[in-house]
Design goal:
Elements (H helix, E strand, L loop, with lengths): L1 H4 L12 E2 L12 E14 L2 E7 L4 E6 L1 H5 L1 H4 L6 E10 L10 E12 L8 H4 L6 H6 L1 H4 L3 H23 L3 E2 L5 E2 L10 E5 L2 E5 L4 H11 L2 E8 L12 E10 L3 H21 L3 H8 L11 E4 H10 L18 H11 L3 E4 L12 E2 L2 E5 L1 E6 L3 E8 L4 H11 L7 H8 L5 E7 H8 L21
Parallel strand pairs: 1-2, 4-6, 7-11, 13-14
Antiparallel strand pairs: 2-3, 2-5, 3-4, 5-6, 8-10, 9-10, 11-12, 12-19, 14-17, 15-16, 17-18, 18-19
Bound molecules: 4-amino-1,4-dioxobutan-2-aminium adenosine-5'-monophosphate.
The site of 4-amino-1,4-dioxobutan-2-aminium adenosine-5'-monophosphate has 24 residues, from strand 12, strand 18, strand 19 and helix 15.
């Protein structure tokens, strides 16, 4: 009852408060500031109230004492309510710890939006151990959690880092279309759509478009959503993922391999150097060390020998033989055992796409590469491309693809062909590796996979 009578009022004689983001709190020690955000955590103890406020740039512990702590308004606060808090930033006394090494000693605050209490409270909807499918239904709320939001911060830094690397390497960004009428990686995973009465698809890969840009812009890349109707539920397949793809002209297969490992290792280095993302990677993946170049190169044939020697069977439970696909489980077992990144190269023609160039010294295999990382397996797939028109047309025929709809792709060989190659990196797979997540679903904002297209 006493609390009912205490109201929260601002002392107008205090110095004006500067509005700041939480990320800059340690630069404002002993100053009066205003911060705005969401109540991340809340507790009361011995007449004090502690609020951990979150604004997306960080967390700050706010301490309310005296009448402020005992006011009815304070006693009715709930987790995820929004506040404007005014107070002075103080260095923490020895032996205490809080984000940024400081705390905000509150002199006044306003409630912007009070979140529900009781059965509708945030903590009732989302808590540790909640069923994963409920968490996915409540993704919009789950994203507010420390782990998911940290992965999304690392994701932002990763995309910024790779754009920086491409700029340094003089690779130009383009934005190819998502609505297309050609396939790249096989008809079985195409999402079909009605396009003004015509059949169209959601793109599986922007590769073909990137190839057509080479004569116009030189080396190019894009960061674009790709769509795959993957029927299987696995840790590393999404129906929509963010595909980082690059295409480079006038280079050899060795140049391509060197470029791929340089892009990956530089990008990771920049992420680790980033003042926001670096510490988050350490927190999410304590033992993580940036991979050293050159990565181990291993031929497909050597991989089969390794798998057979180590008693890892193929999908039929038998010894691997030439032409077998190395499926996810076997691939991961191999790279986990070896323990560092592998460039797996020279896959057989029959298990790879129609556009891949054959090796001159052995036409049974292609100038192709998968980059394998411990814990996730394949994060990148790439190859040199067929540069000869007739060879490409033969490839279409072999795969049962109607060459007519690919005239614009074939033209790239006719109007000034050149040796070229490229690759695609799965953003969510790199993140799963970097942030030590069990599945790529944790690395996508609103993951789409078989049976889930909401919220
Ligand atoms: O190996 P993929 O299918 O290669 C291509 O699409 C080429 N056309 C790319 C190119 O050369 N421009 O896919 C490339 C990468 C894979 O290594 C994987 O990281 C990711 O894309 N990926 C997926 N990620 C999440 N969910 C899926 N369903 C994925 N399919 C491929």
């Amino acid at each position: 009852l006493a609390a009912m009578k205490i109201t929260v009022t601002e002392d107008k004689s205090l110095p004006p408060a500067q509005k700041i983001k939480i990320s800059s709190i340690s630069k404002h020690v002993d100053q009066r500031v205003k911060v705005q955000g969401w109540i991340h955590r809340l507790r009361s103890q011995k007449g004090l109230a502690f609020v951990v406020l979150r604004d997306g740039t960080g967390y700050v512990q706010c301490v309310l004492s005296g009448d402020l702590a005992n006011a009815y308004q304070t006693l009715s606060l709930t987790v995820e309510s929004t506040l404007s808090i005014y107070g002075t930033i103080k260095k923490l006394p020895e032996g205490k710890s809080a984000p940024g090494g400081v705390e905000l000693v509150v002199d006044y605050y306003e409630v912007v939006g009070l979140a529900p209490s009781g059965k509708d409270s945030f903590t009732n909807k989302i808590q540790e151990g909640t069923d994963p499918s409920i968490l996915l239904d409540q993704r919009h709320l789950a994203l507010r959690g420390e782990t998911l939001s940290a992965v999304m911060k690392v994701r932002a830094a990763l995309l910024a880092a790779i754009r920086r690397v491409y700029q340094e390497e003089a690779v130009t960004e383009v934005t190819p279309p998502c609505m297309v009428q050609t396939q790249v990686e096989g008809g079985s995973t195409l999402f079909k759509m009605d396009y003004y009465g015509q059949e169209a698809f959601l793109t599986q890969s922007s590769q073909l478009y990137l190839e057509t840009c080479l004569p116009a812009l030189g080396d190019v890349y894009c960061i674009q959503e790709s769509f795959r109707a993957e029927k299987s539920h696995t840790r590393r397949h999404l129906s929509e993922y963010t595909h980082i793809e690059a295409e480079l002209a006038f280079l050899t297969f060795d140049d391509l391999l060197a470029h791929i490992e340089k892009v990956i290792s530089k990008t990771v280095t920049y992420v680790l150097e980033d003042p926001v993302a670096g510490p988050l990677v350490k927190q999410l993946h304590p033992g993580f060390v940036a991979p050293q170049v050159p990565f181990k190169r291993m031929e497909y044939i050597e991989a089969l020998e390794w798998l057979n020697e180590n008693g890892i069977p193929n999908e039929d439970g038998e010894k691997f033989k030439f032409g077998d696909d190395i499926a996810e489980a076997a691939e991961r077992k191999m790279v986990d055992t070896i323990g560092f990144p592998i460039l797996l190269i020279r896959f057989p023609v029959e298990i790879k796409s129609f556009y891949m160039k054959k090796c001159v010294d052995d036409p049974r295999v292609t100038e192709s590469v998968d980059v394998l990382m411990p814990t996730v397996g394949e994060i990148t797939g790439g190859s040199m491309r067929i540069e000869d028109t007739q060879e490409l047309l033969d490839g279409f025929k072999r795969e049962g693809i109607d060459a007519a709809s690919y005239y614009w792709f074939t033209d790239q060989r006719i109007y000034g062909t050149c040796p070229h190659g490229g690759y695609g990196l799965g953003t969510e797979r790199i993140l799963a590796w970097l942030c030590n997540r069990f599945t790529v679903r944790e690395c996508s904002l609103y993951p789409r996979f078989t049976g889930r297209c909401k919220p």
